Amino acid sequence: MAKFDANAKPFSKQWLDDRLAITTVMKVLNTEYWIPKNINFLWAMGMILAATFGVLVISGIFLLMYYVPTVEGAFDSVNYTIMTEVGYGWLWRHMHGIGASLVFLIIYIHMFTGIYYGSYKRGREMIWISGMLLFVLFSAEAFSGYMLPWGQMSYWAGMVITNLFAGGSLEATGLVEWIRGDYVPDQAFLGRFFMLHVFLLPLIIIGAIVFHFATLRIPHVNNQDGEEIDFDEAAALWKAGMKKESKVIPFSPVFLSKDVFVMGVYFILFFYLVFFHFNFAMDPVNFDPADGLKTPAHIYPEWYFLWSYEILRPFPTDLGLIAFAIAQVIFFALPFLDRSPNVAPASRRGLFNIWFWTLLVDIIILTVMGKLPPEGIWNVIGFISAVLFFVLWLALPFITMFEKKIKE
Ligand code: HEM
Questions:
Q1: C-beta of 91 in contact with ligand 1 (< 6 A)
Q2: Which of 61, 195, 248, 306 could form a disulfide with 34 if both were Cys (CB 3.0 to 4.6 A apart)?
Q3: Over the chain, what is the mean pLDDT?
């Protein structure tokens, strides 16, 4: 950085550098933030998540201008005022609903990409843990948002989930009452979930995203081959003009241009759903106003929670709750349960490859079963899949312990 210049023209590059170190910040975050060359479109998912979060915040701000957080006014403010009276209110609502659903699809793709390529190991443990923290925060954000239209599913999902804190009993215990602020979900309940959804959780999510980015800084992102790159050496080659020989590219403008392309394709799908298939993100039952005296025939969560819901359902109440709680947190432990020294794509890791694909298929089956009524054969398949989920996690340390070191 050039020396301080007291006579620099206000707002010139030198003037800004002297006060805000703009050039240094740009280097650290962009032009000298190095990305491996051998990665594919799956590495754009992180930026797509950040962009979708941006869309959720902006559309949320517009919805917030007309939403009424009272049990008398919430349903109509969403389904009548915003949808029919406010100019383009429907657009912001559809964007918010589709964004909330797609963000989970991309989170799952991002998570499973990390698992497939072993991006949670050898210095990348904190990236994984901060990512899981984001997963939990997004889950809480989605759940609290689902309460706000105060429809039948909002009410009954709120009832069922808060009942979990009574160990499955239908009687509201002290803890359940404390969470609800009442015997049943009512104004106090709606008010606190409103506060969580529009203020506290987004604030924590923003902090967690900054933390996630910070954890990426030193280990850098992994690559398709799990190759250990000497980033200093590779960056020096790039800076010396030996771009072909270097194993890295700068984040901006080179990698960013690819990110923007993948994001363009994603937003075509996003707006296709917003304009033509918005019901994909809305449950028809939630278009009935909340009624504490009318329980819907089947109560189920949104698609992205179905796999963990199905882990809860087939077991007796207490056991189901423990299973559910473990399923929520077991992914945090992945970097420590995988004992293999290899950072490589699953396809080159023998038994781990089978483990990976079995886990993925198992979660898809659990998701499908979670939506079906818990009867007959569906119950049996759900039970087997839930047990398999735990068997897989128990087996992980053993199958990875004996994995042979892959020669580089
Ligand atoms: C929801 C908000 C999230 C945002 C905005 C976000 C953002 C990012 C970004 C920008 C990257 C670097 C580029 C890339 O690999 O895509 C990244 C990497 C990573 N993220 Fe996330 N992420 C989020 C959630 C998660 C979750 C839920 C997990 C998993 C538990 C996770 C785990 C990882 C891992 C392991 C990497 C490193 C990938 C590698 O080294 O190849 N992230 N994230």
A1: no
A2: 248
A3: 94
